[in-house]
Structure formats: C-alpha cells, structure tokens
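Deliverable D4.2, example record:
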Amino acid sequence: MIRAGKVLIPIATVMLILAIIPIDFAYSLVMIVLGVVMEGVGIALIFIGVVRDRIKQKKEEDTHDLSQY
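Output generated by the structure prediction step:
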C-alpha cells in the first residue's frame, strides 16, 4: 500500500502541473479533478499502510513482552 501511494502522488503532481498548460478548459478541469483525487488516494494508501505496519509492530511487541508473565 505504501509503495502504491508513493507512486500515485508523483503521478498526480505531474497531472496537476500539466493542467496549468492552457490547452482546453475541460481538459484542464478534468486533469485538476483527477490529480486531486489521485493525491487523496495516494495519501490515504500511505496512511493506511503506516497504520497497518504500526499495528503489526505493536502486536509483535506484545507477544515478545515477558513482563506480563
């Protein structure tokens, strides 16, 4: 998930930069909307991946914690 987010964010950034070039208003509008959506999805994927890794790490710490015995 984290890797997919790291790929989506630069692609979306390029799309937003390309939307600045005034070819057609509809084209620019679609590129801006898609860029913002892709940025949001990329950020969400990175956030979910980090949270899942943290939960997995916390479970491993709890299984190796001998102080609870």
